[in-house]
Amino acid sequence: MEEKVLQQKVREVLKKIKSIIKIPVGISNHHIHLTESDYKKLFPNEEIKIKRELNQPGEFASEQTVTIKGTKGKIERVRILGPFRAHSQVELSLTDTRKLGIKVPIRLSGNLTNTPGIDLESKYGSLHLDDGVIVAKRHIHMSEEEAALLGVKKGDTVSVLVNSDERSVVFNDVEIRPGKKFKLEMHLDTDEANAGNISRESFGKIID
Amino acid sequence: MEEKVLQQKVREVLKKIKSIIKIPVGISNHHIHLTESDYKKLFPNEEIKIKRELNQPGEFASEQTVTIKGTKGKIERVRILGPFRAHSQVELSLTDTRKLGIKVPIRLSGNLTNTPGIDLESKYGSLHLDDGVIVAKRHIHMSEEEAALLGVKKGDTVSVLVNSDERSVVFNDVEIRPGKKFKLEMHLDTDEANAGNISRESFGKIID
């Protein structure tokens, strides 16, 4: 077979694979990642306690929650996720940012340059973060093998159809985040899930 | 020209028109429509006062607001829209329904069979509605001439692309609502607008 014909065949097979693979959907409510040092300022005499393991290996929701205070309003019982990170990060929905009265950019986790700060309050004390507040950009976690199989790489964006009753949606601008430890899962926030009437049983299909 | 060829040409022209016409986007925050009788129970000695005309002719946001009370939480300062209607109706986002702790179906405005009720509270008194709470199904208002031009009719559903920074979305299941007095406008709720990073300057294009 000619190389050109072979390449064409490979593209066809990749397209077929993309359209077959069901991508589980994870819905992220607002949450906070903290450095160990920031955690200790909010909970000086309380160890972080695992409430529930999350789908991505090693990640967990803790028993600890804080109040986020904006200029216009506050949000109570925002959960701290673990393990501790190298930089504290607060992930909100756009609905949340309007309630708080703050302007927040849409960013991939970890991309915190020029992001706004916020005030956090626990039952023991308070903490001002100078930056680290984002609205999470939608993305798909996958292993490096899955990325190779799907013919996508880190930083690519794809379009994902999620079918539902009354509110089917195609999400464009879904960024690919492959990693050695990652399990296949598309992360949406609560606004995105609600716009698509999406539940934890929903799944997506890459259509482009 | 043969009739078949002519029909094909017409279809092509209609498809072209659809792809050219820019559909303005209206973003609906949670709001309430009341019967005159229900209004008077909440505001016995206060005339409804226009705060702002809305885009659809005759519709207005009033100065009056109430608190909605659910089993889990409440939402304050929910605006009453006018004019009065034949049946009271409360329109919430799915984010709101989770905050209130109630289960609400996605329905077109006016389609209130088997919808849940809710408690409303003004500064003067309170009122229990037996039904009428919905999450609005997304839809496009248009004149009957615009519907004819676009080759769509009442009850059809279309797919609409809304481009934006970081969060472009194709909304499927957008229902067509033609009417003599309607102006061309797609109505989304705050969850849908936030999922697409959509502002009041955004517009949609029918792609299917």
TrEMBL record, chains A, B:
Pathway annotation from the record: Polyol metabolism; 1,2-propanediol degradation
Family per record: Belongs to the PduL family.
One of the GO BP terms on file: 1,2-propanediol catabolic process
UniProt keyword annotations, A-Z: Acyltransferase, Metal-binding, Transferase, Zinc
Protein name, UniProt field: Phosphate propanoyltransferase
Reported cofactor(s): Zn(2+)
Reactions accelerated catalytically: propanoyl-CoA + phosphate = propanoyl phosphate + CoA
